[in-house]
Amino acid sequence: MDPSATGSTGVRVAGVGMTPFESDSGRSLTDLAAAAAERALADAAVDPADVDALHFGNALAEALDESAGLANALAAALGLDGASADRIENTSATGASAFHRGVEGIEGGAAGGAESDRTDVALVVGAEKMSAGDTRDVTEAISRLVHRREYAQGITLPSFGGLAAGTYLDRHDAPREALAAVAAKNHGNAVDNPVAQFRKSIDVADALDSPVVAAPLRLYDCCPMSDGAAAVVLTRGGDRGDDESVADAANPDSEVSRAPRVAGIASATGTHAVAERPDPLSIDSVRTAGNRVFDRAGIRPDDVDVACIHDAFTVLELIELEELGFYETGTAWEATLDGDTALDGDLAVNPGGGLKARGHPLGATGLSQIVELVWQLRGDLPETRRVDGAETGFAINVAGFGNNSVCTVLRA
Q1: How far apart are CA 250 and CA 350, in angstroms?
Q2: Whole-angstrom Cα distance, residue 215 to residue 313?
Q3: Does 76 score more than 90 pLDDT?
Q4: Average pLDDT of the segment spanning 226-242
């Protein structure tokens, strides 16, 4: 497709930053968020005084750490006096929802207000400190993400994952090795990622031999609990002919052309109760958000070079790739086994390790996907984990077991 025909929101990702994702960071939630934010601001060469809006994504602070007023505390820690600040929560899609809020804030400006009141620079931060609670507390908090009636029956997200995995393998006559291959691929991609929680290579046999969690899912089919933070600086892009690039104005010597553009962003909800879905392998929110973002960006799935897929469980990588139109229904497992989704395949999927190996601190995950795409599109990464020539990146961050999805397309 001709790049000139693609859409654009007029927003650039001018800078990104992350902390390492770890099982226990030993740092407070605010410290984690501030560290990622400071790295993003430095990367964008933007002074904190130039930030108009702060959007802070966090899902579990009240449940695990009895914390509140997070956006205000972070604004104070960063010295963002005068900036607007809010906190966003959308369970495991919190990070992408915060990013969505930031993009919309810049796109919409200040409705009915003066030009001086509009948002030109937005700082979006996502952070989670899951080590603030013990395993039992975290499991309980995450279990409550499902529908209330399903929670009352003892259904958990791993339970849904196991049921979906079994159904997928049976329906498509797929071998158990297909799920293990997703885990092995994503662990392999994380080996050279310095911010990944698991930088250990595994093979298919390792995944097949790991302990059962929710049959047929095993330990290596499931993402870990993580501490970590990720942040991005969004600026008015200036590609519509009516605005100077704010990144350029903030730092005239910067290579603004390297800041990827947000070509499209979209979200959608789906049937909340999984039991009420006509097909357990059909995730309406994923399909709807995907269709919307491809339409808004003016591209097709075939135009994507690199994709960050929400692989909280290995089977979700396969289901989402099919729901999004990257592969026909029932064929993503074959593509995985054939190497099509490897780093050097036709569609590089989860080159940073995905949720499976990079880690999954709920509030930070969606933003860590954006950070990974920006690194890939700017060509910042070493050859061992770089998708050569990547120009179009895609990310999907999913809440619960597909209750809500947020999709983003970035272009170099």
Answers
A1: 32
A2: 12
A3: yes
A4: 80
Q: Which two tokens stand for residue 404?
A: 């809500």
Residue 237 corresponds to which tokens in the numbers above?
Answer: 């892009």
Single-letter amino acid code for the residue at 107: E
Give the chain's end-to-end CA distance (angstroms, integer): 14
Which of 390, 357, 375, 259 shows the shortest CA–CA distance to 18? 375
Query: How high is the pLDDT of residue 65?
Result: 77
Q: What is the pLDDT of residues 180-228, one digit of tens each?
A: 999 999 999 999 999 999 999 999 999 999 999 999 999 999 999 999 9
Environment class of 257 (CB within 10 Å of its CB; exposed 0-12, middle 13-18, buried 19+): exposed
DSSP state, residue 225: P
Number of helices (H), then strands (E), in the chain: 15, 12
What is the H or E stretch that residue 183 is in? helix 177-190
State if pTM tops 0.90: yes
Task: Report the candidate in 362, 412, 372 with the shortest Cα–Cα distance to residue 395.
Answer: 372
CA 131 to chain centroid: 20
How would you label 174-192 residue by residue, b for 16+ Cβ within 10 Å and e otherwise? beeebbbbbbbbbbbbbbb
